[in-house]
Amino acid sequence: MLDSIINLDKQLLVFLNNLGNEQWDPFWLAVTNQFHWSPLFLLVFFLIIKSFGWKRGGFMILSMIILVAFSDQFTNLIKDTVQRLRPNNDPEIKDLLRTLINPQSYSFMSGHATTSTFFTVYVTLLLKGKYKYIYLLLFFPAIFAYSRLYLGVHFPIDIFVGITIGTIFANLYFTLYKKIDKVSFA
Fold first, then answer.
1. Residue 101: count of CB within 10 angstroms of its CB
2. What are the Cα distances from residue 29, in Å, to 61, 96, 133, 168?
3. What span, in angstroms and rounded, lies between the C-alpha atoms of 80 and 74?
4. pLDDT at 177
5. Residue 107 to residues 49, 83, 112, 154, 155: CA-CA distances in angstroms?
6. SS3 category, 107
7. Does the structure show a pLDDT above 80 at 130?
8. Where is the Phosphatidic acid phosphatase type 2/haloperoxidase domain (predicted)?
9. What is the pLDDT of residue 178?
């Protein structure tokens, strides 16, 4: 059963990856680069400070920095434990993919999908009562995660599990934040 799921995962990646073309390659290379999302992060920080003030907002931003560090380390722990080859290194399918970058680390689970989802869902939960269109932020992890399929460096299961774990962690982290916030800023 697991073998058939992994086989379907590979087939789906080959299909999705081969939808790409050279015209779109620069766009997806830019999307996958975290630095290019800096204006979004600055906007989020601005909205948090505007909504909650410097003291409380600063605490929230500090909690986001901890969130990103935790997510990154958790993802690396999973990758090093599972040790699934990235698609661009998988001898079974690497010649069937359009790969534009060639990372050598392990694939499962996607750090891009996990951390971007964790961050964005957490921010959305923090700001949902303050801004009507805050849910539009959720396009960020979806686009960011898809870039990893387009580039041939993650399998769909890596992305799906990353988004799922990121969503679960964001909700748990938000629940913890609310408990700490009640005590600290009451």
1. 13
2. 28, 19, 27, 28
3. 10
4. 85
5. 36, 7, 11, 6, 7
6. coil
7. yes
8. 61-174
9. 85
Question: Cα separation of 103 and 153, whole Å?
Answer: 7
Looking up tokens 């990121």, which residue turns up?
166
CA-CA distances (angstroms) from residue 149 to 58, 108, 129, 184?
35, 13, 33, 42
Distance of CA 92 to the CA centre of its chain: 26
Which residue from 71, 60, 75, 59 is spatially nearest to 110, judged by alpha carbons? 75
pTM: 0.90
Report domain extents, the chain. Answer: 47-184
Q: Please check the confidence at residue 54 and state whether its pLDDT lies above 70.
A: yes
Q: pLDDT at position 179, please? A: 86
pLDDT category, 185, cuts 50, 70, 90? low
**Would you state the structure tokens that stand for residue 38, as one six-digit string?**
């800096």
